[in-house]
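Review box. Two proteins, two foldings.
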Amino acid sequence: MKFLSLFNKTPQYQRFNYTPRFYDPQKEEMQERENRIKLELDRERGIVPESSGDYRSRISGSFQAARKRSKPGIGANAIMIRLGVLLFLTVFIIAFLEWGKPALYSLFLFIPVYIYLKFKRK
């Protein structure tokens, strides 16, 4: 048995390359303060417009606006077709349970008649 395992690839342990990240709250607070001061200075000079500074102003109404722009999922026609198919299947299952195979034979009679009437109109 050991002879066959020589030709197979032996499993290796999964190795991870993990580089830890360090969080320095003082350094991050200092960078936020510097960015805020630079932005205020740029606004005073007229380089940056007033509305571009705060991300909350860009997000504030975007979810409602996206909902208004979105397309409706399914139309009324698709809902009616789905309802018709479910109604037909329900009636067919009840008829099959009540009368058995004659209901199954009537299904094979109904489908060709329906297809004939549908394509006859065109």
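Next protein.
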Amino acid sequence: MRRVAASILLMEALVVALAVPVAARVADADLGLAVGGAAGLVLGAVAITALLRYRWAYVAGTVWQALVIATGVVVPAMYVLGAAFACLWGTALWLGRKHEPRRVPRS
């Protein structure tokens, strides 16, 4: 599950980074604000990816999904892209819980 979740976060971070020119050109957003916001989101995704060995990082990843969807306020296409990645994230968590082997504590 960790590999799939990490892949989803990193690919989504790439999409967020590529949304900066769209935000600056099409949405008429301030370039500095677009770059700063995207950089914060990308760094957040990388940090969460590095911390996926902890259970709370999956909660942080879910919150991150909501933040990406919220960027649709600036670039409306991010509503659709963010929702698509959120569905992938939710599916990865669901399948991971369902199919990962259970760890039996040693006695």
